[in-house]
Specification:
Layout: H1 2-11, H2 16-28, E1 55-65, E2 69-78, E3 86-96, H3 98-117, E4 123-128, H4 131-137, H5 147-158, E5 167-170, H6 178-195, H7 207-223
Parallel strand pairs: 1-4, 4-5
Antiparallel strand pairs: 1-2, 2-3
Helix pairs in contact: 1-2, 3-4, 3-5
Length: 229
Amino acid sequence: MYHRCIQLSEQFPSHNMSIAYRLWKKNHETKKDEFFCWRGKANTGRNVVSINTNTVVIWSDRSTFPNPGYGRVGLVVQDSDTSEWIEIEYSIKDTITNIGCEIEGLKKAIEYSIENYKGKDKRVVILSDCKFAVNVMLNKVHPDKYKEQIQKCHDILQSLGEQDTPEIYWIKGHSGIPGNEKADKLAKKARKKADNCQPELHQIVNKEKIIVTIQDWLHPMQWSGIVTG
């Protein structure tokens, strides 16, 4: 209903529902650094319920370029004990795929939860807009490509007691949810910083230089009889 109101309010501005939506939006707009907790439907077929002042919400997102490439993760934390959003950037070593970086983002969120909230009687909810990565954490899919990476996450979760285990849910990305939007911008900002470390990725490829390089590489092998033809 929320997203339907957004779509129809511009098309039918005089409709009662559109007027009601604008009044609601006016009273629910968030200011910069204002504490905000999304209470709508956050997961297909499941609601993130009873989010209160004892709940810590961690939003995770990634930015990778190219794919695969250097990845960066952005975590945005909402904790009622602090008046401002907590923003954390992480760099991922070596090249990584988009999905791999999303999984790594969830791992970083789990580790942050352990480092800051283990044994503190806090409910921790981790939200990601990558459904595949969330399903991996919930054992709904078992891709061989990320088997080792997934196992590390599962090992961490299995080492925790029930009280300290964070809940992990999927949320729809780019749908106006403040925490998700902040995490997305944070990850992109971190990735742009990383671009300075890999300028070669933005250079135009010269095909003639590639051919010459291959020929130079093959030449000694042809003389030694390793390559024929």
